[in-house]
Design goal:
There is one protein chain. 36% of the residues lie in helices and 18% in strands. A hairpin with a 3-residue loop joins strand 2 and strand 3. By secondary structure, it is of the alpha/beta class.
Length: 265
């Protein structure tokens, strides 16, 4: 069993000169929300994406999903990423409406940022470290990663995907496929996420095709991730979980190849 310092100890708030290690708090789910803030995302799109997560944690459906688990609580952290990743909101216990509102408010107050390049692989590695440092111990561990383009920095995405899944961590995807012309995007990003990014028991993706879909899709995805195996025990949502075109021989190096061509121009 992992023994991690509690949040107050980590920040040096507890009195005394000798840190005290405490057993981790058990939760139904440890959830990393890894959100794309690369330069290919317009600032207005980033604002809508951020607001979608803020609004999701204010919804009664999300509270009910949290309370349906054996412990009735989850731990969540918010990460923003491009070529590198930053933990924007630290690990936070969500065990009821008050805690969910507090998480939403912490997130709302954070400034918007943009980070060059797109490294899904670096973000997965960063998220794995966050689980190691988490003061919580979840029955399940999930990385919810959004993005509007393929990996173009760091090791290839499937390498990091495989290392992550090997640790019992599930990776779900939120490919952002807005209608625009961008040299870093690909038309079948959902298939890329299906073949090269998501993985683990029950992994799935939901895609965003228009800016108007951000809020609803984010809420849907969070609810399914929180419910986990309980999704079959409750009223099944009217919207299906999406799977893209999983096919042998898909080119998971497309992002790196596109980046190489841009450099060579």
């Amino acid at each position: 069993m992992r023994l991690q310092c509690a949040l107050l100890t980590c920040f040096g708030i507890l009195a005394g000169s000798t840190p005290v290690q405490l057993s981790p708090a058990f939760v139904d789910l440890e959830l990393v929300l890894a959100v794309d803030v690369s330069y290919s995302m317009e600032i207005d799109e980033q604002r809508l994406q951020r607001q979608g997560y803020v609004n999701a944690f204010l919804q009664p459906e999300l509270f009910r999903a949290v309370q349906s688990g054996p412990f009735g609580r989850i731990a969540v952290t918010y990460v923003e990423w491009g070529g590198s990743a930053i933990q924007t909101v630290p690990w936070t216990l969500v065990d009821g409406p008050g805690a969910a509102v507090q998480f939403a408010e912490m997130l709302r107050r954070q400034p918007l940022r943009r980070i060059s390049f797109t490294s899904i692989s670096n973000t997965l590695a960063f998220s794995r470290k966050l689980f190691q440092l988490s003061p919580f111990q979840g029955m399940r561990r999930v990385i919810d990663i959004s993005g509007d383009g393929p990996n173009n920095a760091g090791v290839p995405a499937p390498v990091s995907r495989n290392s992550t899944v090997a640790q019992g961590i599930v990776i779900d995807g939120l490919p952002i496929m807005l209608a625009r012309r961008d040299s870093a995007s690909i038309p079948d990003l959902d298939a890329y996420y299906e073949n090269c990014v998501i993985g683990g028991d029950g992994a799935f993706l939901l895609k965003v095709s228009t800016v108007d879909e951000f809020a609803e899709t984010i809420l849907r995805k969070l609810i399914v991730e929180i419910l986990g195996t309980n999704v079959s025990d409750l009223q099944r949502p009217a919207w299906p979980l999406q799977r893209a075109d999983a096919r042998a021989g898909y080119n998971c190096f497309i992002g790196e190849e596109m980046q190489e061509r841009r450099i060579g121009q």
